[in-house]
Amino acid sequence: MRVGVISDTHGLLRPEVFDVFKKVDHILHAGDVGGAQILIELEALAPVTAVYGNADPPELRARLPQVAHLELDGFVIVVTHGDQFGHPTPAKLHEAFPRAEIIVYGHTHKPLLELVDRTVTVMNPGGAGHQRFNLKPSVGIMELEPGIPPRARLVGLTAP
Predict the structure, then answer these.
(1) How many Å separate Cα 54 from the centre of its chain?
(2) Distance CA 36, CA 46 (A)
(3) Alpha helices in 9-80 (DSSP H)
(4) Contact call for residues 130 and 10 (beta carbons, < 8 A)
(5) Domain regions of the chain by residue span
């Protein structure tokens, strides 16, 4: 199973995302979506599991959870924006969600792919929307196959 991972779109869905995500089976959005239209456009590509972030408007907060728990291809996954942890780190997230095998978060806009406790894959795809903090926009791709550790990579997007 191929999973697209995105966060911090803040109302901007770059055209490149459609190319990177064109063959995904599921999309995980780790918050600060910016508006329902972003989710509608992503849902045209694949089913979407999304959470709200600290910058999302009340109508999205009413529709989305702060934390999503799901299972894809046998992997227990948690998606959260991470702002509830102040400055989220892989260790803090693993402590908060000890049963998760994959943790996806956003908030910092800093792309990160890290293995925690030798078994837990933690990914922050970076900010996919407007460029902030002198960080290049990015998304992530995960390949999930039962019985094999997740394979994941970060994909840079060009700034407008």
Answers:
(1) 15
(2) 15
(3) 15-20, 36-43, 58-63
(4) yes
(5) 2-156
- Rounded Cα–Cα distance for residues 106 and 6 (Å): 8
Domain 2-156, classified CATH 3.60.21.10, yes or no: yes
Alpha helices, DSSP H only, in 24-148?
36-43, 58-63, 90-96
The pLDDT tens digits of the residues spanning 111-120 come to 999 988 777 8
State the sign of the Cα–Cα–Cα–Cα dihedral 106, 1, 17, 33: negative
Start-to-end CA span in the chain (Å) = 31
Q: Which residues of the chain have pLDDT under 70?
A: 159-160
**86 Rama sector, left if φ>0, alpha if ψ -120 to 50, beta otherwise:** left
